[in-house]
Design brief:
Elements: E1 7-13, H1 17-28, E2 36-42, H2 46-53, E3 60-65, H3 70-80, E4 85-88, E5 94-95, H4 99-109, E6 113-123, E7 129-133, E8 154-156, H5 157-162, H6 175-184, E9 189-201, H7 207-214, H8 216-226, H9 228-233, H10 235-282
Parallel strand pairs: 1-2, 1-4, 2-3, 6-9
Antiparallel strand pairs: 4-8, 5-9, 6-7, 6-8
Length: 283
């Protein structure tokens, strides 16, 4: 492994034994390899622990802890890192081979950019790719209403340190969104590489789905209250984004209702059309 790339990859792992080696290999196969990979096991069951204990790559350090949540796991790994750049990777996802090289180049040449992500390939449970997500990145104003970033991205460790890391109180999700807001507050930016260099594995019962379904309002309220001054200082931008999002939701609702009404109408009329056709054929 090429040393002094100035990058440490931190991989939190919770019961992702079937996927962890794929994630690690995607890092080991990078065109520019990291100095170290730190896997933090967050209280997984024995099956995953056995897989992690069998890892023998000299570049990989595995740390075991009781289940404390993904924020704690990331913070533990980042705190151990000796490099200026950190790349977070979830244990069930993976990167294409050129991501680290391209992200390093952007950070090295743009001091205002503190974090780098990319477009996202979505992998369904049957291993078929369904879509490519295109987060916008940008300044903190672009993150007030929605998370325009990528959870697995490269960032400066100094930025992580300046905000005391990921918020360990956010056990139910959205901790990456809050983290981006925190490190972008002072005029910094997130850059998005316009290539799908990251693959996100869509699980049937994912933490992201659970957060959206069960905890969305609570988590949004927490982020708003934590960064209330920021929202007040950018009230007009925030309000316009809310109005736009509300308008889009209404339009989508109308389209859905119209589509549903059309389907219902066709279903109701189908027997009548059939009867009419029978009489027409007899004449």
């Amino acid at each position: 492994m090429i040393k002094n790339s100035n990058v440490t990859v931190v991989i939190p792992c919770f019961n992702d034994g079937p996927f962890i080696n794929k994630a690690i290999h995607s890092v080991l196969n990078q065109t520019i390899k990291p100095d170290q990979i730190i896997v933090v096991d967050d209280g997984s069951e024995q099956a995953t622990k056995a897989i992690l204990e069998a890892i023998t790559y000299p570049e990989v350090k595995v740390v075991f802890q009781k289940n404390k949540g993904v924020s704690v796991a990331r913070n533990v790994g980042i705190d151990l890192a000796k490099t200026d750049y950190i790349l977070t990777l979830d244990a069930d996802d993976y990167f294409e081979s050129t991501f680290i090289e391209k992200a390093i180049n952007i950070l090295n040449n743009n001091p205002k950019i503190v974090t780098v992500g990319c477009l996202i390939k979505v992998l369904e449970t049957d291993n078929t790719q369904t879509e490519i997500l295109k987060p916008l990145g940008g300044a903190v104003q672009d993150f007030l209403v929605k998370n325009n970033g990528v959870g697995c991205s490269m960032f400066r460790k100094s930025a992580w340190k300046s905000v005391s890391g990921y918020d360990e109180k956010m056990l139910d999700g959205y901790e990456d969104w809050e983290f981006w807001i925190a490190i972008l507050k002072d005029g910094k930016q997130m850059h998005i590489i316009q290539e799908p260099l990251f693959t996100y594995r869509m699980k049937k019962h994912s933490r992201d789905k659970k957060a959206l379904k069960l905890h969305d309002y609570k988590l949004r309220e927490y982020i708003f209250n934590k960064h209330k001054t920021l929202y007040f200082d950018n009230f007009e931008t925030f309000a316009k984004q809310i109005l736009y999002q509300n308008s889009r939701l209404r339009q989508d609702k109308i389209k859905t209702l119209n589509s549903l009404n059309t389907k219902i109408g066709k279903t109701i009329l189908a027997p009548l059309r059939f009867i009419k056709q029978l009489f027409t054929n007899k004449q």
